[in-house]
Amino acid sequence: MSVHEQEKSNSATPPRTTGEDSEVVTSDRAEANTPDGNQQHKTRKVELPRFRGRLIPPLDRAIIKILPPVLILALIIAVTVNPSGAAEVINQLRTFVTSGFTWLFILYSLIAVAVCVWLSVSRVGKIRLGGPKAKPEHSNFAWYSMLFACGQGIGLIFWSVAQPIMMREESPVVPAAGGEGGMVWTYFHWGLTAWAMYCVVAVCLAYSHHNLGKTLTFREATVDILPKKAQRSAGVVVELLAIMATVLGLATSFGFAALQFTSGLASFTGLTSGPGLWIAVIVALGGLTAVSAFLGVNKGMKRISETNSILSIVLMVGVFVFGPTVFIISNMSQTFGSFFYNFLPMSFWTDAPTSAAPLDSWQDSWNGWWTVFIWCWVIAFSPFVAGFIARISRGRTIREFVIGVTVIPSLIVMVWVGILGSAAIHYDNESEGSISADVAADTSSGLFSMLNGVPFIGGLLLVVATILVATYYITSLDSGAYALAEFVSAPKKSGPWFRVVLVASIASVALILLSLGGTAVVDTVQTGTIIGGFPFAFVILLMIANLIRRLRLRNKEVKRLEKDINDPNHRVEDDFVDADGLPTRQID
């Protein structure tokens, strides 16, 4: 069945609502036929897009809701009861993935970049998410702030200093002299390619939801391309993978965020990191995230994200002005040029000699430490990052969406790393390797070690950076809760209290991991989650193929469908839906 035939077959299905933060357009005077046949004027809210997705069978819904927490609980028990055994199994899996499939992750990243280029330069770039009359729900500043905060804010806080320092002496493709190689590879790993990998997943979800009326889930964006008999079972498997990746990814990141936040506190308060402080931090951050999740995107997530952006600017300007300004400018100029010159060689680099024979350990491969590790991380985080980005991007054209999600954040990443990483290299040279020593002892301390070297305002910047660790993770967890709520509840509507429960559940998992096993267990579970990016890569490739198929088959019927499900005026079908926007009866 072609995509337009399939969408046409669903065209009589009444609409659904998408939550309290979705675009709501009210028709002040809308004529509609009432069930008794009388025609009258009505004032009724029309929440867009109208539902054209699949109603999930009760058994499938039960599996999606019950199985993930059972599997996650079993994983936590296994790791905490036998942490060394679990770590050994996960290390073997990581070696297997690195040894045999480095080429696959490189290919996947290249496909993501190529699809984003195609979407931005081809005629499909003119397609507007939400139909031709849709308007953006958020200002550009708010939009960039939210997508950056949920995508990479906490990762950059962690790696913007640590990675350039750790890669000073070993940098393939790019010369390592003077720290140039470490800077350039950090631009690469956290810049354009990583954001293209997020973007290509987000645009698949956004077009499926805003234009075709599907739920904002991976199953609805993926299974259409499969044989009809396989769609139901495949949809359940896809959704289970997305839910598990989201919960474990957020929980382990919450654990590391607590560790880094306590490291920041220790840098200017004298407090000692330990289980008691970890618990206090997790409870505090979890509580603030729960409040943000309850308030919604416009009142919670949006305001904290904008605060993030302002504090990030303060941090960068402070380091730039009061730090080694001339060195920062010179080093940024040199490393920016090196990045653009070496972008293609880095993009294709697989370290082919290491594939001549199976690896004894992933640690024997440079890519195992860096590119494969980070690409797996991005893939594993794609479910909630891409899901949230898709959710907040209604009203933008595909071209605007792709440029906004790839180019703008990549430039921010390069400026961020250029300033903070350059300052770290300068102070490390001046202090005869003190920052390198701190990073070797505790990776999360790199940023704070560098800020200690900034004259006059270093202490103030330590406070700002510590606050940023907290607020960036609040926005990451908040966006993850929104995406997870959609995955679990769809096609029904999730409420604010359900998101609060999800936040509490994720915080509880992080608390259990840190309390029972400490940092070693958190590290083990996070590595396992990242390995989960391996099977999920195949799901995303299938979803990309389905998006291309849908766009190539987009004809007059599909365009009419997009207009119908996003028509702001009241329609007859709007009278025959329940509180979740699901059909109560079929319209003739």
How would you explain this protein's 3D organization?
The protein has a single domain, classed as Amino acid/polyamine transporter I, CATH 1.20.1740. α6 (180-190) runs parallel beside α7. The model is unreliable at 1-43 (pLDDT under 50). A two-stranded antiparallel sheet has the order 1-2. The protein is mostly helical and 588 residues long. The protein contains 21 helices and two strands. The protein has helices at 3-9, 58-81, 83-121, 140-151, 153-166, 180-190, 192-211, 218-222, 228-269, 275-295, 297-322, 325-348, 366-369, 371-391, 398-430, 434-441, 446-451, 458-489, 496-531, 533-552, 556-565; strands at 24-33, 39-47.
Q: Features of this protein?
A:
588 residues, mainly alpha, Amino acid/polyamine transporter I, two-stranded antiparallel sheet, 21 helices, globular, disordered N terminus
Distance between the termini: 23 Å
CATH topology: Amino acid/polyamine transporter I
Proportion of residues in helical segments = over 70%
At the first level of CATH, what is the class? Answer: Mainly Alpha
Domains, number: 1
Number of helices, where a helix is a run of at least 4 consecutive DSSP H or I residues: 21
CATH architecture label name? Up-down Bundle
Q: What class would the helix/strand composition place it in?
A: mainly alpha
Q: Give the uncertain stretches in residue-range form.
A: 1-43
Tell me the strand order in the biggest sheet: 1-2
Strand fraction band?
under 5%
Main β-sheet description: 2 strands, antiparallel
The overall pLDDT, averaged over residues, is: 86
| Counted beta strands | 2
User: Which H/E pattern describes the elements?
Assistant: HEEHHHHHHHHHHHHHHHHHHHH
Task: From the alpha carbons, calculate the radius of gyration and give it in angstroms.
Answer: 24 Å
Coarse shape? globular
